[in-house]
Amino acid sequence: MKIIIEKNYSDLSKKAADIIEKEIRNKSDLILGLATGSTPVGTYKELIRRHKEEGLDFAKVTTFNLDEYLGIPHDHINSYHYFMYDNLFKHINIDEDNINIPNGNPENVEEYCKSYDEDIEKQGGIDLQILGIGENGHIAFNEPDDKLYLGTHITDLTESTIRANARFFDSIEEVPKKAITMGLGSIMKAKKILLLANGKSKANIIGKLLKDEVVSTYNPASLLLLHPDVTIILDEESASEYL
Ligand code: F6R
């Protein structure tokens, strides 16, 4: 596991963009796993800048997003579809056919989840997976529990996640209670993983993850300790309980 500590969020975002850019320049048809949330927004901004000013080319890149709220329309301002178009896709030259985001309103949930995993497999798996981390250690929406699922599935969001995500909604009551999320299988099969964490609110979980060296389903991010190619980029605040 490679740990990089940058001074602040802006430097963290640039570093993450450097790594993503390098992968795209090495393999123009990169299979890129993407996350939503506040953490990668700066990285997406920097990728957009590099696309517009430096010709970073997304034409052949395929993306798979980690998750989506369940029961929320695609065009809802808080849907992860909306988020991804708003923060990245509509500003770059990605082919819309190459964008994959879990459908928050599948007709047949079981079949849909299976097909999402099969689509990833058909592409040969994810080359580079971008991850954020929840304050409780969740990755994607794999929440702390006595068991974790391998495949894409429907999950109940924990109180802590609902509270953390309420900042994007008018009230906490509006935050969906369920989500569709990739499981640990596709994430752990990614050839490379890049986890980003910034700010004080992530210091505790980052300290636990990097100092305890314990793998537990109650800290889903701890499974990453078993992956052969993980890079973690932190800012000084999120690294403060690790250092
Ligand atoms: C989002 C996702 C989540 C977030 C996590 C951190 O697609 O998979 O696991 O990465 O909740 O969210 P932020 O970045 O808002 O702190």
UniProtKB/TrEMBL annotation:
Q: What is its EC number?
A: 3.5.99.6
Domain called Glucosamine/galactosamine-6-phosphate isomerase: residue spans: 11-224
Name the source's superkingdom. Bacteria
Pfam families named among the record's database cross-references: Glucosamine_iso
Q: What do the Gene Ontology cellular component annotations say?
A: cytoplasm
The answer to whether the entry has keyword Hydrolase is yes
Q: Which GO terms describe its biological process?
A: carbohydrate metabolic process; glucosamine catabolic process; N-acetylglucosamine catabolic process; N-acetylneuraminate catabolic process
Active-site residues annotated for this sequence: D67, N136, H138, E143
Can the keyword Transferase be found in this entry's annotation? no
Task: Report keywords, A-Z.
Answer: Carbohydrate metabolism, Hydrolase
Query: Catalysed reaction(s)?
Result: alpha-D-glucosamine 6-phosphate + H2O = beta-D-fructose 6-phosphate + NH4(+)
Using the UniProt record, name the top-level EC class of this enzyme in a single word.
Answer: hydrolase
A molecular function (GO) term: identical protein binding
Q: Which pathway?
A: Amino-sugar metabolism; N-acetylneuraminate degradation; D-fructose 6-phosphate from N-acetylneuraminate: step 5/5
- InterPro entries per the record? Glc/Gal-6P_isomerase, Glucosamine6P_isomerase, Glucosamine6P_isomerase_CS, NagB/RpiA_transferase-like
Report the protein's function: Catalyzes the reversible isomerization-deamination of glucosamine 6-phosphate (GlcN6P) to form fructose 6-phosphate (Fru6P) and ammonium ion.
Family to which the UniProt record says this protein belongs: Belongs to the glucosamine/galactosamine-6-phosphate isomerase family. NagB subfamily.
Name the UniProt record assigns to this protein: Glucosamine-6-phosphate deaminase
Q: What is the lineage of its organism?
A: Bacteria, Bacillati, Bacillota, Tissierellia, Tissierellales
- GN (gene name): nagB
